[in-house]
Amino acid sequence: MTNDARQIATKNSLIYSLFLNAKGRVLSDTIIYHVNHQDHEDPHFIIECDSKCKSTLLRLLHFYNIRKKIQISEEPTLRVLVNLNAGEAEQSIDGALFTGKDPRAVPDWCSRMLYCPAAAPETAYVDGDTLYRRSRYCLGVPEGVDEFKLGESLPLEANADLCHGVSFSKGCYVGQELTARSRFVGVTRRRIAPILFESSSKPSIIPLNSPIFRVSKADNKVVGSRPVGWVRGQEDPSPVLVPPFQHYGLALLRLAECAAAVTSGDRLVVAVSETAQVSEAAPIDLSMTYIVRPFAPSWWPEDIAIGLPRIQPFLVASSTASQ
Prior knowledge:
Elements: E1 13-20, E2 26-35, E3 44-48, H1 54-63, E4 79-83, E5 98-101, E6 111-115, H2 128-139, H3 144-148, H4 176-185, E7 190-198, E8 211-215, E9 229-234, E10 247-254, H5 255-264, E11 267-271, E12 289-294, E13 296-297, E14 310-311, E15 321-322
Parallel strand pairs: 13-14
Antiparallel strand pairs: 1-2, 2-3, 4-6, 4-15, 5-6, 7-10, 7-12, 8-9, 8-11, 9-10, 11-12
């Protein structure tokens, strides 16, 4: 666990944290709630994670459960609601177990609520996931198995340090050596950042981890012998998107190389067809690719992703969003 659990020693508190394997790679991203459960006198914690890695996280917690008095079980009755209207006061509903601001360090972003589905009709939140995903992508906040590429991602590359998800003073924990060394070096060369797909029509589904290449504006040839990034997330093509199709995603980027491409006017492209040929020797067929524009969210510190444009993206507000 990358964060310091002492931050949630009191009830009605929450933190953002990652769980790592012994090699320092991310197994699960989580939000941990210390809830005021009236039926339990002992401390009661709820761990929110991607449902795809639920069984993996349960096995990990049982493996390290040395104190047999600690009971670990699945909680299938709870759901999460997200309020994207940061200017509103935190609102609750009958039956809500917890309400609080999202612990990730994005200023004035959203609040979260744990609730039982019977307490709030889901029909009121049918577009919630679409809006929540767009807000995360515009702000550079990855979440879940697909975007983290669990078992391979490093905490700092996934912006866990920027999101207040890593404690560098708590002492040793499983997988901390690589994270501590990266912090000591002081340079994180790759990070997950927002990208904007340039397209005059609705985009197709792009496979996750599709490589991104730098292409010279002079001759359309690939610059360098390796990708400068990989697609980690993409908005779902849907009726919500209207011309000119502002279509956002996330990508793990080599920051310096992408900044150099932006400065020189070169393109960053994603090949979306198996027939697209990508090599240094021949020009790339841009009709078989998507052009992407990377940017740094305005809330990132100025010394992160130097050279990438900083923009305040257009976000569609929503009173509440289901997840």
